[in-house]
Amino acid sequence: DAGVIQSPRHEVTEMGQEVTLRCKPISGHNSLFWYRQTMMRGLELLIYFNNNVPIDDSGMPEDRFSAKMPNASFSTLKIQPSEPRDSAVYFCASSLAPQETQYFGPGTRLLVL
Amino acid sequence: SQQGEEDPQALSIQEGENATMNCSYKTSINNLQWYRQNSGRGLVHLILIRSNEREKHSGRLRVTLDTSKKSSSLLITASRAADTASYFCASSTGGGNKLTFGTGTQLKVEL
Q: Do B98 and A33 touch (CB under 8 A)?
């Protein structure tokens, strides 16, 4: 299995631009998670889906962030407009069920100038 | 405070020594998991221990769970420089809820 695939691996953009991060979970996994990691705040859960349905988005910082999962093999996390404080590493993870072992992607390192 | 908190925040040891990291949580759990993160990489699952288990082994790793104290420990025996990483505990509460990750312990194993 290829594992969780994220793209792009690195993204540098200017403040105000739209950023779209992509994730392909492991085939057969029913749960998908988006995390953000910074030195200051550590690892934060932004949102998670179960069977393509958003279950908990309480970690989404504000309306500038949105996430979708149109099908079982693809999810996006969008930031519009981006701000410098959004600079972080964004991880996608998937699992068979929300409480089971999570498999993390390599992350997208985002830098907003 | 967080559901899972690791202790210590940072640990530095010599190669060959054992490393012990602790995790405390606040509410009843379904299972508790340990993950490792190498610098610049995603988290990698190490071991899962369910609430009805007290101890689990995987290679040089030993995890214990004390539900009465709401705590878990991860022991890495005969550490190697390659074990240098951050280690996170993550707890799952009942009802199929998501995992809640702790703040992590940074382990440095020196030659």
A: yes
Q: Kindly state the tokens that stand for B53.
A: 């288990």
Distance CA A35, CA A49 (A): 12
Residues of B in contact with A42 (CB under 8 A): 101, 103-104
CB contact under 8 A, B30 and A42: no
CB A110 within 8 A of CB A89: yes
- Output the tens digit of pLDDT for each of chain A's 113 residues: 689 999 999 999 999 999 999 999 999 999 999 999 998 888 999 999 999 999 999 999 889 999 999 999 999 999 999 999 999 999 999 999 988 899 999 999 999 99
Q: Chain A residues with CB inside 8 Å of B48's CB?
A: 100-101
| Span B65-85, pLDDT tens digits | 999 999 999 999 999 999 999
A25 touches chain B (CB under 8 A): no
- Kindly report the CA angle at A27 between A24 and A28, in degrees rounded to 5? 130
CB distance B44–A102 less than 8 Å? no
